[in-house]
């Protein structure tokens, strides 16, 4: 997987993004070439109308409507244009552009950007008009001479995200007590291990004990906190996340099953085969073959 693949579209040059950490552009007109599956170096928010097939991690979305798409640089995705025309807007921004806020309070930790969230949000006409006005405002501010344009652009991003959370309430972790705080830290630490880019740098934290040691707490306390907030033990969260990454690697890379096993921290491929089958009810090879036929 190539983490540096970028979308070369009208109005967007990677040099602009690297210079300022932000870019907004209109995407109205003939459909651009489809995006390759891979990770990027930036977050992306797209407002579009048209027919698209979007692969995001191990999920696939077929949508023919007006919608918002939220792309996370840590999650591989691709976008196949199925209609000849499209219209809308897109903005891309780096983590450093938003990085002035404390990470725990950042809106980028909302579930629309997380691997287990839904990055596609359908919009009705009224909602689309409002979001469109925010993109238009960003275009005006971006090309203008206002001295605090970065701050205003961040505010527009905040407004888009808050509007989506109002339209489609998310099950956010509310940091009201110690158990919730500990659960948040666990989930963040789990997600930081992904994506897996190479078998030479395998997964390090794979058990509840591993996470407890990294967070400097007793494993029983950590597991009790996570189960209290999420209703599921740590082992289930870890297993589901490893299985999700395994599916993505099987579907979108030509790595051997053995290489994927080692990359995910399994000592032997047979251990990975048994693990994957226990969680998904199919073997890695069978899963890969089923996706090749689609």
TrEMBL record:
Keyword terms, alphabetized: DNA-binding, Transcription, Transcription regulation
Domain HTH araC/xylS-type residues, every copy: 207-290
SMART domains: HTH_ARAC (SM00342)
InterPro entries per UniProt: Homeodomain-like_sf, HTH_AraC
Domain of life: Bacteria
A single MF term (Gene Ontology): sequence-specific DNA binding
SUPFAM superfamilies from the UniProt entry: Homeodomain-like
PANTHER family (alphabetical): ARAC-FAMILY TRANSCRIPTIONAL REGULATOR, TRANSCRIPTIONAL REGULATORY PROTEIN
Protein name as annotated: Helix-turn-helix domain-containing protein
Record lineage: Bacteria, Pseudomonadati, Bacteroidota, Cytophagia, Cytophagales
């Amino acid at each position: 997987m190539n983490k540096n693949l970028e979308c070369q579209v009208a109005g967007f040059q990677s040099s602009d993004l690297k210079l300022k950490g932000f870019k907004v552009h209109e995407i109205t007109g003939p459909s651009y070439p489809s995006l390759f599956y891979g990770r990027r170096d930036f977050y992306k928010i797209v407002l579009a109308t048209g027919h698209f097939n979007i692969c995001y991690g191990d999920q696939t979305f077929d949508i023919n409507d007006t919608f918002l798409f939220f792309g996370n640089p840590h999650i591989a995705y691709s976008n196949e244009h199925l209609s000849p025309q499209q219209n809308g807007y897109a903005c891309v921004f780096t983590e450093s552009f938003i990085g002035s806020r404390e990470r725990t309070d950042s809106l980028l930790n909302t579930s629309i950007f997380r691997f287990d969230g839904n990055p596609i949000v359908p919009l009705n006409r009224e909602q689309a008009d409002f979001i469109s006005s925010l993109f238009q405002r960003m275009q005006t501010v971006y090309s203008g001479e206002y001295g605090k344009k970065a701050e205003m652009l961040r505010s527009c991003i905040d407004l888009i995200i808050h509007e989506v959370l109002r339209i489609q309430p998310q099950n956010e972790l509310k940091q009201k007590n110690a158990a919730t705080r500990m659960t948040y830290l666990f989930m963040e630490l789990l997600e930081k291990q992904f994506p897996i880019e190479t078998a030479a740098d395998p997964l390090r934290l794979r058990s509840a004990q591993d996470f407890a040691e990294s967070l400097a707490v007793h494993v029983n306390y950590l597991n009790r906190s996570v189960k209290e907030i999420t209703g599921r033990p740590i082992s289930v969260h870890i297993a589901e996340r490893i299985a999700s990454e395994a599916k993505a690697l099987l579907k979108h890379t030509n790595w051997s099953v053995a290489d994927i096993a080692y990359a995910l921290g399994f000592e032997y491929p047979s251990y990975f085969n048994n693990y994957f089958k226990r969680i998904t009810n199919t073997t890695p090879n069978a899963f890969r073959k089923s996706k090749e036929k689609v």
